[in-house]
Task: inverse folding
């Protein structure tokens, strides 16, 4: 009963063997997968993939890397139309990313605010990408706060203090394969929050967990992430998997996998 709440299975990296990858994830008992868009084109592909499989759902979003320049207003209209499609369960992947030197802070922040407001209009959770931008992220979430604001910090990479700040704002933390890396901060985070605050993801094709680090990641590796969480919390893997699956179905308003 493993759940991968963030996997780019519709990306070109899987074009040659997507069916085989899906067969492997089913064998590994991954029973729920959410494929996020990062712009209009990829959001459409996510929706198409979700239509083909009962256990796959889609997100519609605009990644901060797609906001290198001010975003045309029509883009937001197209994304909102897509977000109303069946099997779209969240607005994402959206957020802020200041890692690379050519980022446009103002364009990213404007796009992020508009996508947060779209989620409010549609009463949908948000899936947030944050890299080297936690102060601005938390500030914007405070300014855009409302009673139904909810979602997940995808591929969470912050420390315990940031984790607790995100949780107070109504967000869960999605744990990727980096939890298995030697210098990861995630074990300390996982030890200091409740299981109800956690979700799991692969972020495939990126960030494969050990012992597959450096290879193309895929959802069949998701159980390695859940097992790592279980070890840190000193509980059976099945207990961790069951709790995380419940967290996912409640956040995204899905039937039990």
Result:
């Amino acid at each position: 009963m493993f759940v991968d709440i963030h996997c780019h299975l519709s990306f070109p990296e899987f074009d040659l063997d997507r069916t085989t990858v899906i067969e492997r994830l089913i064998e590994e008992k991954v029973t729920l997968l959410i494929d996020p868009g990062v712009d209009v084109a990829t959001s459409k592909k996510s929706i198409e993939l979700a239509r083909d499989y009962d256990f796959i759902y889609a997100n519609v979003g605009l990644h901060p890397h797609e906001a290198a320049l001010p975003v045309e207003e029509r883009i937001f209209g197209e994304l909102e139309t897509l977000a109303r499609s069946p099997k779209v369960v969240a607005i994402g992947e959206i957020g802020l990313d200041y890692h690379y030197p050519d980022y446009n802070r103002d364009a990213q922040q404007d796009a992020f605010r508009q996508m947060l407001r779209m989620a409010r209009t549609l009463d949908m959770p948000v899936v947030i990408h944050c890299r080297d931008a936690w102060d601005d992220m938390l500030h914007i979430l405070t300014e855009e706060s409302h009673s139904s604001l909810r979602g997940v910090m995808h591929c969470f990479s912050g420390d315990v203090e940031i984790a607790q700040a995100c949780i107070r704002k109504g967000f869960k933390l999605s744990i990727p394969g980096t939890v298995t890396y030697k210098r990861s901060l995630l074990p300390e985070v996982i030890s200091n929050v409740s299981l109800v605050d956690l979700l799991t993801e692969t972020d495939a094709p990126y960030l494969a967990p050990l012992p597959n680090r450096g290879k193309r990641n895929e959802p069949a590796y998701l159980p390695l992430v859940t097992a790592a969480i279980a070890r840190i919390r000193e509980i059976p893997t099945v207990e961790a998997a069951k709790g995380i699956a419940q967290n996912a179905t409640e956040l995204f308003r899905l039937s039990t996998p």
Remarks:
- Strands lie at 2-4, 30-36, 56-60, 88-97, 126-131, 151-153, 171-175, 198-200.
- The chain has a mean pLDDT of 97.
- The radius of gyration is 17 Å.
